[in-house]
Amino acid sequence: MTSPLIAKVAVPVPLYGLFDYLVPPELIDGIKKGCRVKVPFGRKQIVGMVMSLGSESEFALAKLKSIIENLDDSSQKGPALSEDVLKLLEWAATYYQHPLGEVIFSALPKYMRQGELAELKAEKTWRLSESGEQADAGMLKRSAKQAALLTYLQQSPLAEHSAAQINEDWENWRAAIKALVDKQLLIMEEKPLNALISARHSAAEIQLNSQQAIAADAVIASLGEYKTFLLQGITGSGKTEVYLSIIEKALAQNTQVLVLVPEISLTPQLTQRFVARLDVEIASLHSGLNDTQRHSAWVKASQGIARVVIGTRSALFTPLPQLGLIIIDEEHDASFKQQEGFRYHARDLALVRAKNKNIPVLLGSATPSFESLENVSRGQYELIKLTQRGARNAKPPKVSLLDVCKRPMEDGISDRLLDKVAEHINKQGQVLLFLNRRGYAPLLMCHECGWTTACTRCDANMTLHHHNQMLRCHHCGYEKPAPKVCPECQHESLYIPGAGTERIENALREKFPDVVISRIDRDTTRRKGELDKKLKEAREGKAQILIGTQMLAKGHDFPNLTLVGILDVDQGLFSADFRGTEHMAQLVVQVSGRAGRGEKPGEVILQTHHPEHPLLHTLLETGYSGFAEHALKERREAFFPPFSYMAILRCESTHKDQGKEFLKECRQAFNYKEVDAFGPLPAPMERRAGRYRWQLIVMAKERKLLHGALRDWMPRVIKLKSASKVRWSIDVDPQDMF
Question: Can you name the residues that pair with 326 across neighbouring β-strands?
Fold first, then answer.
């Protein structure tokens, strides 16, 4: 009698370990590792993933339930996840100490998690007819919207448009597009959704300068082998052109390419440049897509139809059967680290995937992370530098400190900076004022008794939003109307200290009433397509003054931008996080790099109350590389990453001492030589959203020592009775201390 086949199945629940199920005889032929299966779990049926097949179980066979259905049998395209992706996810679950089931299912699009087949869904698309290609939009005099829409489609590099793509730039467009179809200027087709982009024509290749050519050749020579390159190019040095040249060679070798960007705002403009240059189908994967688009893009990529995938961090887990190259743009950006749930770092996992596939990785940044620079010094990465600005041969901007101590300040802007803004506007230049604080002001204060707008749920003040006279906490989302008098003493003299982007905008509109001003932050870009619209207007120079947060700090090319003013550079000088100064320097360099990228020279002014601060002078006098070298010496002396390895056990509870007591028990269960534990310590913001937050920090000199301790310690933590009374999580290689 043959032994029954037993499948070890991962299910999407916050439990560690796999679950054993019997494989019914009728399913044996089609079931493989990586197949999704429907299984009974408790009182319901859920979708699980087969991780291995065998004949042994630690449980009695009579107690095992049977798999109900194989959702990826041999009549379909095979297992939902390829062997290399499963291997990566298993490694990641172990490294980041997260339940394997949740890790596996975080890599699947929604419809795949729900058990639907890996096939494309139908959607309407529109393309120009022959007469539409040649038509003069001016003939549509009676319908301005039809004329504008026709012009938009004629000028677009896309051969066809889905509803979602049109939605990004247009509102209430369906009646106009139906009229254009009726006039036979457009052709409507219903086909499998193409959450992909294909070009009507390819742009001419731009000639690389000598530095760019050397960089591209080095990576091209390594195609087919594992190697990590760090491309450190000053802002405006043409890193994207280097990427494109390498990608063309990789595509010529019949491989797929994965390009990761840190934020959704960078995806459209990068995609447009790729579309104009590469004559292949390009899939875009990011949180701005609806579930149908995301599913179809994932399916096309996994079937090898999409040759280039551009996406944010979760795109890393997309199955790519012919993957030959991974590029991480802005590799230093903290957005590559997932901060909730499965707390992985996409950049670091990309290296693991590349090593498993034996392919090269290219990390690009003007301001590389300290971890990457240290890996260069250890010989683990090969450094390539671009020190010249791109084809336009633009010069780096002139950077200066503006001491605002004892100077007149108008709503957060000094008189001297206002004069500079006027000077550049008069010369037809474009101005960017950067302040990483949205809203009107960081708080309200009573001039009489000192009352402030403290959030009742967080250890933070509520921000004033002037346009609707609301107070809003940017940490927990709680909001309420702003009072007109002091709630404590009823005094009417409410003082508004500090400034946010909204206040800066109001002040500049009064100062420059005839100038087009655009504010770009989370408050002004909530509506779908609004961010792309504002960025397009900025690139075209329609807005002469831009005001924004870190959404404008990286990757954007505004050719007419001549002045950048950083309004509060002091924020990063006194951070409670040991990475604070690193992030400050990166932000300053990235924002400064927006200036002078065209033919006009650029100027950068940093407002500060601490003009003699040594870190500022080091950054200005030696550049980012010199600053990083100096800061890394301090990190080494303080035994902070990258010269040590860290994990933080975080917990939060509604009762102040509950989390603290839990972490005390965790600390008692922790006893490992050469691994240090610190705490329990209150989080830098101890109370957030009504919960008290504590943390236990674990550090070791070597990575293997830290992970050896975590592998032994975490099962003990899980078994603690107090673990079920608090919310807790483990963050391996944390990117912030908050």
Answer: 258, 361
210-218 long-range contacts (CB < 8 A, ≥24 apart) are 211/237, 211/385, 211/386, 211/387, 211/388, 212/237, 212/238, 212/241, 212/242, 212/245, 212/386, 212/390, 214/384, 215/242, 215/384, 215/386, 216/242, 216/245, 216/246, 216/249, 218/382, 218/384
Residue bearing tokens 């109307």: 481
303-342 tens-digit pLDDT: 998 999 999 999 999 999 999 999 999 999 999 999 989 9
Going by C-beta distance under 8 Å and a sequence separation of 6 or more, which residues neighbour residue 44? none
How many CB atoms sit inside 10 A of residue 271's CB?
Answer: 21
What is the pLDDT confidence band of residue 44, given thresholds at 50, 70 and 90? very high
Q: How far is it, in rounded angstroms, from Cα 670 to Cα 698?
A: 10
> Could you give the 3-state DSSP secondary structure of residue 89?
helix
Q: How far apart are CA 85 and CA 106, in angstroms?
A: 12
Cα 604 from Cα 301, distance rounded (Å): 42
| Model confidence pLDDT, tens digit, residues 633-675 | 999 999 999 999 999 999 999 888 898 999 999 999 998 989 9
Quick check: 458 and 477 in contact, CB under 8 A?
no
CA distances from 336 to 260, 262, 300, 347 (A): 9, 6, 24, 6
Lowest mean pLDDT among 32-41, 151-160, 220-229: 151-160
DSSP secondary structure code for residue 653 in this structure: E
Tokens for 407? Answer: 């100077």
- 111-140 pLDDT per residue, tens: 999 988 877 777 788 888 988 888 888 788
pLDDT at 664: 93
User: Which candidate, 504, 501, 507, places its Cα nearest to that of 549?
Assistant: 501
Band of residue 363 on the pLDDT scale cut at 50, 70, 90: very high
Predicted TM-score (pTM) of the model is 0.85
Longest dimension (CA), the chain: 91
Give CA torsion, residues 7, 12, 15, 16, to 10 deg: 50
DSSP state string for 232-283: EE-TTS-HHHHHHHHHHHHHHTT-EEEEE-SSGGGHHHHHHHHHHH--S-EE
In terms of Cα–Cα distance, which of 91, 85, 64 is closest to 3? 64
Residue 225 backbone dihedrals phi, psi, to 5 degrees:
-145, 155
Q: What distances in angstroms separate CA 710 from CA 20, 500, 693, one per listed residue? A: 26, 42, 21
- The 8-class DSSP code of residue 316 comes to G
- Specify the pLDDT at position 555: 66
Q: Is the pLDDT of residue 191 over 70?
A: no
C-alpha distance from residue 75 to each of 27, 574, 721 (Å) = 12, 61, 47
In b/e form, how buried is each residue of 274-304, taking b as 16+ CB within 10 angstroms? bbebbebbbbbbbebbeebbbbbbbbbbbee
193-225, pLDDT tens digit by residue? 554 555 555 556 678 999 999 999 999 999 999
Q: Which of 614, 608, 656, 606 is nearest to 633 (CA)?
A: 614
Give me the mean pLDDT over the 411-429 stretch.
Answer: 89
As a whole number of angstroms, the distance between CA 294 and CA 291 comes to: 5
**Nearest one of 204, 194, 301 to 257, comparing CA atoms:** 301
Taken as a whole, the chain contains a residue count of 738
Residue 209: count of CB within 10 angstroms of its CB: 18
**What is the model's pLDDT at position 685?**
85
Report how far residue 476's alpha carbon sits from residue 320's, in angstroms, rounded to the nearest whole number: 38
Residue 665 carries which side chain, given as an amino acid letter? E
- Helices 370-377 and 614-638 pack at an angle, to 10 degrees, of 60
Kindly give the pairing relationship between strand 645-653 and strand 691-700. Answer: antiparallel
The confidence score (pLDDT) of residue 559 equals: 79
What are the b/e assignments for 562-586, b being 16+ CB within 10 Å?
Answer: bbbbbbbbbbbeebeeebbbbbbbb
Would you state the structure tokens that stand for residue 311, as one six-digit string? Answer: 């996406």
CA distance 698 to 706: 8
